[in-house]
Amino acid sequence: MLVLLLGVSLLVVTKDLVSDAFDFVAVPVGVLAAVALTRRGVRLAARGASAVAARMPAVTVRRSQPAA
């Protein structure tokens, strides 16, 4: 839905289909949709990185003396 909203906003801004007054609405909607998509992409990448890190074998620390 956000991709569709971003595409429509970009299409409206780049084409002269409607009056310039509508651009004042389309530009913020497009910017907000782009920000939301970017946040979702970052969140997805973070989840993927944590899933990959969870599958890595843990390195155990061996101490010669008990921890203080």
Which structural traits does this protein have?
68 residues; mainly alpha; single chain; 72% helix
What does this structure look like?
There is one protein chain. By secondary structure, this protein is mainly α. 72% of the residues lie in helices and 0% in strands. α1 packs antiparallel against α2. The mean pLDDT is 76.
Topology:
Elements: H1 2-14, H2 20-55
Helix pairs in contact: 1-2
How much of the residues is beta strand, in percent?
Answer: under 5%
Instruction: Give the biggest beta sheet.
Output: none
Low-confidence stretches: none
Mean pLDDT: 76
Distance between the termini: 55 Å
Percent helix, as a range, is: over 70%
Quickly describe the structure.
This protein is mainly alpha-helical and 68 residues long. It has helices at residues 2-14, 20-55. The longest helix has 36 residues, at 20-55.
